[in-house]
Amino acid sequence: MSTETITQQVTKGGEFLIRETLPADIFVPEEINEEQQMIVQMARDFVVNEIYPNDARIEKQEAGLAVALIKKAGDLGLLGASIPEEYGGFGKDFVTSTFLTAATGDAGSLAVSMSAHSGIGTLPILYFGTVEQKKKYLPGLAAGTLKAAYCLTEPGSGSDALAAKTKAVLSDDKKSWIINGQKMWITNGGFADLFIVFAKINGEQFTGFIVEAATPGLSRGEEEQKMGIKGSSTRQIFFQDVKIPVENLLGEAGKGHLIAFNILNIGRLKLAAATVGGGRRLCNTTIQYATQREQFKKTIASFGAIKYKLAEQAILLFVVESALYRTANDIENLKAALVAEGKQYHEALMGAAEEYAIECALLKVLGSEMIDYIVDEAVQVHGGIGFSEEYLPARAYRDARINRIFEGTNEINRLLSVDMLLKRALKGRLDLMTPAMAIQKELMSVPDFSGLEEGEYAYEKNVLKNMKKATLMVAGGAVQKLMMALENEQEILMNVSDMLSEVYTSESLLLRIQKLHGMGHDVSLLNDILHIHLHDAVIRLENAGKNALESFADGDELKMMLIGLKRYTKQEPFNCKNARRRLADKLIEENRYCF
After folding, report:
1. Dihedral of CA 39/32/590/460: which sign?
2. pLDDT tens, 423-432?
3. Do residues 236 and 183 make contact, with C-beta atoms less than 8 angstroms apart?
């Protein structure tokens, strides 16, 4: 997909590292419109009224309950937000569907079931199916009368999806595909009516297929006994001479990787959205417990150690949310631009998601690690009660752990983010060379302060500029020194990925607060979030950069680059303790997450 003809206002994926973005160019969740608010409220009412009261029953996988709840969600239109109206959906934009995912993200195991159905189970047909396939399946999927599952992983192929052994062979009369093989860790496997299955034609061409559950030869294993998300159905699916119509091939023969990997781009962003929704519920739970629980004749919320945890939960949530809606809006804007150029809707959205694959990979890591911190501290603040299965934190703690494995492990996503960035530079899609060379020249010269930002948020903008320079210096140095051998240095790649994440979140946060300030919002406490995050992000970025430099440079070269890194990570002292206390006091006053 080429973005050569896209308007200049649309920033390319990965370009955040080398291009300045303006507050007006991003979307912030505070800009939610009336229609989006209505959809979010409908989703919240469904979760609060239908899911919360049934948490225990869902956790025990009560027969038929998940199916009935998914059908109710379908009746409300919660499963078809992304599906065009002609196929029974709402045809809403990508930002609206992101709001919807966040609104249902705290639904526990049922959120996983719904997401698997409406995301990886439905989108392959929407984006890659023929008109006939869409007409046949999408209305039922949107309504929840058909439940979908996605069959990619096998016992011998997880992250290496193309190593799949499941085979598809054309029948002698050329009217059917005959599938044999095995899939595992299939969400919704126990009740799905429809499976998106990946198999190799004649053991060679990796291809997608639509397989109806009632097809003879398809069987389901027993429910997996999982650490968390126990309320979701997870089974192995077996295919023994499963014969499906030849027209059920999905997309093109041998192009299944395009389906699998492009769907994962959207899945990664939607996972981050779900963690934002889940994080909000756990923040509220933790704050409310801390304001009620007394020790030493005081509520534990009054203690500094607890205030730190409450504030840090809120900071991480606000930061990830800022990056999430920035990316969702970038995808929507590019999709709209591609449609205006004549692309079909599904082609445009797939192209836009691929363009921002780097950001989606970073978001997946950020969201999953954010929710891990929040649930861990929720258990800690609750103390012994937090370890009891009678209360939410214990289940949330177990449920959250899968997020670092879902949609590609966090290790894979870290490696992918840098790999995609460097490949785009090599192909000329991103000009990383010019700014990288400028930084090398800058390091060899007397410091010049003429280019410093001035005016409101000048200090923060300058810190961000230097964070970008530090990241380009380290990444550029690694490429120059190691060349093609860099792909085998995963530790260095992961260091660079962490630097990219710090840059992207810091910029997203700064832009959101600038925009809110321009809209007339009181941003005094949000400035505390900004300054705490920047202070800590620079420290984390410097540490990642130092680890990377010490892994590939030595002698005078290392000394020079470490001096450069130190130069680009200088910052003014800031009292994070007092700022966190101010944030915590506001959370305690409101008795909820309120930013």
Report:
1. positive
2. 999 999 999 9
3. yes
Cα torsion angle, 52, 116, 30, 76, sign: negative
Sign, CA dihedral 117-119-121-122, equals positive
What are the DSSP E strand ranges found in 171-297?
176-187, 194-201, 205-212, 218-220, 234-245, 249-250, 294-295
pLDDT in tens, 419-475: 999 999 999 999 998 998 889 888 887 766 666 767 799 999 999 999 999 999 999
Residue 141, CA atoms < 13 Å, CB-side half-sphere: 33
* Dihedral angle computed from the Cα positions of residues 305, 310, 316 and 318, in that order, rounded to the nearest 10 degrees: -150
Q: Which fold has domain 150-250?
A: Butyryl-CoA Dehydrogenase, subunit A; domain 2 (2.40.110)
**Which fold, 256-412?**
Butyryl-CoA Dehydrogenase, subunit A; domain 3 (1.20.140)
- Cβ atoms of 114 and 78 within 8 Å: the answer is yes
- pTM of full prediction above 0.85: yes
Query: DSSP assignment of 127-166, as one string?
Result: HH--HHHHHHHHHHHHHTSS-EEEE--BTTBSS-GGG---
Q: Which amino acid is at 307?
A: K
What token pair was written down for 352?
């836009």
Distance of CA 54 to the CA centre of its chain: 27
CATH class of 32-146: mainly alpha
d(CA 231, CA 60): 6
207 touches 198 (CB < 8 A) = yes
CATH topology identical between 256-412 and 425-590: yes
Torsion angle, alpha carbons of 39, 45, 48, 50, to 10: -110
450: Cβ contacts below 8 Å, ≥ 6 apart: none
Domain extents in the chain? 32-146, 150-250, 256-412, 425-590
- Confidence band for 7, pLDDT divided at 50, 70 and 90: very low
Has 557 been annotated as catalytic? Answer: no
How far apart, in whole angstroms, are the C-alpha atoms of residue 414 and residue 363? 10
The class (CATH top level) of 425-590 is: mainly alpha
Q: Which two tokens stand for residue 24?
A: 């007006």
Question: Which one is catalytic: 354, 407, 502, 542?
Answer: 407
Find all residues with CB under 8 Å of 564, minimum gap 6, and list them: 439, 443, 470, 473
